[in-house]
């Protein structure tokens, strides 16, 4: 039985508190020799990307959202996440659709994979301003703590359960799938 969950609140912020300095230096407590984790954005794109959490923080406006969701293992969870909108980051990768045609955009899917192999699927229409306009984030900070050492996290503020909150994102695939294709 699901519990009622209050809606999340999203606000714009310039930079997460305690974030990594623009120099890209590691946060206190992190090894200077540790290589920053990258997430790959690939698929049917005109400009595939490989991005670190620091780049997500520096290249796009940061939003803050307070969320409450029901975790299967730990019950009700409350967190604050900072990060850019998924839509803004994916726009920079230039998906291979005709942006003027809504039906073309609505055919695209997103597959997000985490460091533990957990994955989820979203539709482009969920994040598109002409359709769902969901404020889904690629988090750069969790509860004020930078995620540079662990990797970005997918945040779906409208979800009542945490199953689509993918941690340590390694890959985001963007493209179409044709169920009539025998391959």
Protein described:
It contains four helices and twelve strands; from the N terminus they run βββαββααββαβββββ. Helix content is 13%, strand content 34%. It is globular, with a radius of gyration of 16 Å. The strands form three sheets. A five-stranded antiparallel β-sheet has the order 1-4-5-9-10. A five-stranded mixed β-sheet has the order 3-2-12-6-7. Strands 8-11 form a two-stranded antiparallel sheet. It has 183 residues and is mostly beta strands. The relative contact order is 0.24.
Spell the H/E element sequence.
Answer: EEEHEEHHEEHEEEEE
Task: State the major sheet.
Answer: 5 strands, antiparallel
Measured by DSSP, the beta-strand proportion falls in 25-35%
Distance between the termini: 39 Å
**Which structural class is indicated by helix and strand composition?**
mainly beta
Helix content: 10-25%
Instruction: List low-confidence stretches.
Output: 1-9, 13-33
What do the pLDDT scores average to?
A: 84
Strand order of the largest sheet: 1-4-5-9-10
Cα shape: globular
Give the total of beta strands.
12
Tally of contiguous helical segments: 4
Radius of gyration (Å): 16 Å
């Amino acid at each position: 039985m699901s519990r009622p969950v209050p809606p999340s609140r999203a606000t714009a912020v310039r930079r997460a508190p305690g974030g990594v300095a623009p120099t890209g230096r590691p946060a206190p407590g992190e090894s200077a020799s540790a290589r920053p984790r990258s997430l790959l954005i690939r698929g049917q794109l005109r400009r595939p990307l490989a991005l670190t959490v620091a780049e997500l923080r520096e290249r796009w406006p940061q939003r803050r959202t307070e969320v409450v969701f029901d975790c299967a293992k730990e019950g009700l969870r409350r967190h604050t996440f900072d990060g850019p909108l998924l839509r803004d980051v994916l726009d920079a990768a230039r998906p291979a659709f005709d942006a003027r045609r809504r039906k073309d955009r609505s055919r695209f899917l997103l597959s997000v994979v985490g460091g533990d192999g957990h994955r989820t699927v979203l539709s482009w229409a969920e994040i598109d301003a002409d359709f769902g306009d969901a404020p889904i984030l690629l988090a750069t900070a969790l509860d004020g703590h930078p995620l540079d050492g662990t990797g970005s996290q997918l945040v779906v503020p409208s979800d009542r359960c945490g199953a689509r909150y993918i941690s340590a994102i390694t890959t985001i695939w963007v493209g179409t799938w044709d169920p009539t294709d025998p391959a």
